[in-house]
Amino acid sequence: MRNISKEDYLSAIYKNIDSNSKVKANVIAEKMDVSNAAVTDMLKKLAKESLIIYEPYKTIKLTPTGESYAKNIVRRHRIWELFLHQIVGLPWDKVHDEAENLEHSGSDELINRMEVMLNFPEFDPHGDPIPAIDGSIPKQRDSVSLSKLKEKECGLVVRVNDFSQNFLVYLAQIGIELKQKIEVKEIRSFDNSMLVLIAGNEFNISKTLADNVFVEIVKN
Amino acid sequence: MRNISKEDYLSAIYKNIDSNSKVKANVIAEKMDVSNAAVTDMLKKLAKESLIIYEPYKTIKLTPTGESYAKNIVRRHRIWELFLHQIVGLPWDKVHDEAENLEHSGSDELINRMEVMLNFPEFDPHGDPIPAIDGSIPKQRDSVSLSKLKEKECGLVVRVNDFSQNFLVYLAQIGIELKQKIEVKEIRSFDNSMLVLIAGNEFNISKTLADNVFVEIVKN
DNA sequence: CTTTTATTTTAAGTTAACTTAACTTTGTGA
DNA sequence: TCACAAAGTTAAGTTAACTTAAAATAAAAG
């Protein structure tokens, strides 16, 4: 490895694959904070290396090679995240940015060693699955956005969908973390904010916040 | 940070400063495996940023800013090395290459956290001193190259001067590691190889090997 | 079905970090 | 002390990864 930029594009493509395994160049440009033209440029290079299937104006698809390549980068990223959180004790709102830098470094041997130390973990600190070395991906529990719950329903947090400091620090403040139980007490129809019960305390949370927290519905 | 190349040049300059705090561009080019012209190019850029003092055909000097910058990179590298060795359990012949990639990543916060985990270590796995966050450098014990010892003299290994896999793996095989006691039994004057006693076993080692192992002389 | 809007591509140009080749300066050894 | 090799610099060119602006295509909306 040493193709930091290519690796970034590939994993961005991988992460933005929708249900039909199609990606819009548009979205990549935004996520990577570069111009559309830069994306087009890179797509040509990736296609030349048979990592993606690309024809002008068509949506982007990963080849099997490209996909396994991308999966490996995601694997590195998520193992780093968990390692930093569990072994080094970095708070969960810091691990994403840190791992963003580290994911391109570290030999496969190092990554595998960390995986062993972590006892072959299945999910990173945000609840996202960690691809195994053979490319298999742990199955996630069925989950829905917290904002989809009705009044009186309960959920266990299984994943969050926003890795920004602000967001995660606030979640930690009100006690939202993985495996935490949340009960919806009331929903205010005018702005879809909700009153929720978390570990015995009530909080009012916005629709935007609830949209980004995913829960597994459970009986209360 | 994000100036990987500049950081590499700076730390290469720092590490190659001789007793008069002068560095030859020549040496840098070789260590970095680039052309002399590339070095000249970069020197101009570093000078423009006041990180070095540079005039054509003169030897290179670091400014105070440049030096503290460089020291910080060395610090990162050596903390990574020790962390990988002690916490992750990577063998000592692997840590240098791995740290070479990691030294440019990781926030200062992460580096400091690792330093705490390691209990403010003074030396890396090769015996080199780790600059503290304030720039101070632990004093090394007086040491001489093993090849300087006379017959019957004894030394404790305090540092090695070559980080290549081959070299370090071989050292490990014959039992040479930091703090290991070595006794010189015989010196063969025709090739300066020596017969040494290490943990009860005798080995014949070449002058080249002995040159790269540094010991503190002790009574036997 | 045509027009408008959104998305994507092409074209031309920039910057950082290199290269090789030719030139200049420095310092060494007979 | 001076010739010449070693070290260092300059000049010109390359490549990867970008940029902006203009042109082309696709998608949506009347």
Describe the model.
2 copies of one chain form a homodimer. Among the domains of chain A are: 4-62, Arc Repressor Mutant, subunit A, CATH 1.10.10; 144-218, SH3 type barrels. In chain A, the strands form 2 sheets. A 6-stranded antiparallel beta sheet of chain A has the order 3-8-4-5-6-7. In chain A, strands 1-2 form a two-stranded antiparallel sheet. In chain A, 40% of the residues lie in helices and 17% in strands. In chain A, a hairpin with a 4-residue loop joins strand 5 (181-188) and strand 6 (193-198). Chain A is globular, with a radius of gyration of 19 Å. Chain A has 8 helices and 8 strands, in the order αααββαααββαβββαβ. Chain A is an alpha+beta fold and 220 residues long. The model of chain A has no long low-confidence stretch (mean pLDDT 95). The longest helix of chain A is centred in the middle third of the chain and has 23 residues, at 64-86. Chain A binds a DNA duplex (30 and 30 nucleotides) through helix 3.
How is the topology of this model organized?
2 copies of one chain form a homodimer.
Chain A: H1 4-15, H2 25-32, H3 36-48, E1 52-53, E2 61-62, H4 64-86, H5 95-102, H6 108-117, E3 144-145, E4 154-160, H7 165-173, E5 181-188, E6 193-198, E7 201-205, H8 207-211, E8 213-218
Antiparallel strand pairs in A: 1-2, 3-8, 4-5, 4-8, 5-6, 6-7
Chain A binds a DNA duplex (30 and 30 nucleotides) through helix 3.
The CATH architecture of the domain at 144-218 in chain A can be given as: Roll
- Oligomerization: homodimer
- In the CATH hierarchy, the third-tier topology of the domain at 144-218 in chain A is known as SH3 type barrels
CATH superfamily of the domain at 144-218 in chain A: Ferrous iron transport protein A (FeoA)
| Share of residues in strands of chain A | 15-25%
- SSE string of chain A, helices as H and strands as E: HHHEEHHHEEHEEEHE
CATH class of the domain at 144-218 in chain A: Mainly Beta
Secondary-structure class of chain A: alpha+beta
Distance between the termini of chain A: 49 Å
Largest interface: A-B, 19 and 19 residues
Mean pLDDT rating of chain A = 95
Overall shape of chain A: globular
**Helical percent range of chain A?**
40-55%
Largest β sheet strand count, sense and barrel closure of chain A? 6 strands, antiparallel
> Radius of gyration of chain A from the CA trace?
19 Å
* Contiguous uncertain segments of 5+ residues of chain A: none
Distinct helical segment count of chain A: 8
